[in-house]
Amino acid sequence: MAYNQQNSYSEGDDDGADNERGDQLEHIMLSYQWDNQKLVEKVYNYLTQHSIPVWMDKNGGMQDNVFLSMSQGVQRCFALVCFLTPAYQNSANCKKELTYALDTDTPVIPCIIGSKEEGIKWKPSDWLGMSISNLLYIDFSQVDDKNFESKCQELIQRLVPYLSS
């Protein structure tokens, strides 16, 4: 499968080979804390409208066993896109998802949403700051209707190398 320049994800000459984690790569995984579900769902809709397969817990990714669903989501993803906030940093499940992705050498694209408190510029710290310290993030902190599409296009451009492999 490959992402082509016409903004679509298509079946190509891919033989469906398994990834180095032992499972077939199937999707991009969105990792977020539920307080930001509205924005992440909007990103999910944008990506799927551009024919990019996306795993999101709310949209069929989560089954009865939460940890099994999360681990399979990570194992089968081309890349994990995490939406970072103070609540994400404080969430045990978000920490498990991101840590597992890093431990399995899954590519990670951090998107910083930041704090809901006006005028506060939040920056990841503690375990989260250390986990993403060497990664280039996308700034979603000031996303609005005017720049939403450009932020999503920036995300797609960061995803293309993983979708094309």
TrEMBL record:
Region listing for Disordered, in residue ranges: 1-21
Gene3D superfamilies: Toll/interleukin-1 receptor homology (TIR) domain
Listed GO biological process terms: signal transduction
InterPro entries per UniProt: TIR_dom (IPR000157), Toll_tir_struct_dom_sf (IPR035897)
Coiled-coil residue spans: none
Pfam families attached to this UniProt entry: TIR_2
PANTHER family noted in UniProt: ARMADILLO-TYPE FOLD-RELATED, TIR DOMAIN-CONTAINING PROTEIN
Protein name per UniProt: TIR domain-containing protein
Organism from which the protein derives: Adineta ricciae (Rotifer)
